[in-house]
Amino acid sequence: MALIHHYPFCPHSRFIRIILGEMGMEPQFVEERPWERRMEFLAINPAGTTPVLIEDGGFVVSGAGVIAEYLDETRGLGMGDRRLLPESPAERAEIRRLMDWFLNKFHEEVSSYLVHEKIYKRFIPMSMGGGAPDMAMIRAARANIRYHLQYIGYLTSKRNWLAGDKLSYADMAAAAHLSTADYLGDVPWDEQPTAKEWYARIKSRRAFRSILNDRIPGMAPVSHYTNLDF
Length: 230
What we know:
Blueprint: E1 3-6, H1 11-22, E2 28-31, H2 39-44, E3 52-54, E4 60-62, H3 64-75, H4 89-123, H5 135-158, H6 169-183, H7 193-203, H8 209-213
Parallel strand pairs: 1-2
Antiparallel strand pairs: 1-3, 3-4
Helix pairs in contact: 1-3, 1-6, 4-5, 4-6, 5-7
């Protein structure tokens, strides 16, 4: 059985968990608090970041984008027409472009601020930078997310899913990052009904259920977080 080192509110970890759910894989999960920088974890992944996949034979794959590509290469063909990174070079290029958009650009402009300031800092010791959130960072993330929602609305007004006619890694990357912001109540869904309808569709998928069960001790999610018809 494969093993995944992850943190429940790491959006990159959520991306891989959704992929695994769509592929029907049930690996063993190990919760890893990346800010603790455990020596045992650093020995596996010197970068100290989640997620990390460890195959049965001990082969280690680190990083959300790398793991996604590896899973497609090793399991993708078995999914047939449900493959999440299809064979067409043009389709693959567009999916990869949008994966990069959400795993990097969205993360740098939105989810990294919100997750670090509102979640991680609750658990990080004061001596290591923990404590109250920096509201300037949160305001920046809230401003930036509107631009990204507009782009999602634009794409989904012209396509069935973000990258085309079929569900793909692009949708999962976007939904994983949005889900962390949504838990915190920082997604202005009413401003972009087309983006909201797209998110409701992916949120309703079986592979998303474990994401919706995640909870932060002492911090309940926004009221619509688990509502599939919100």
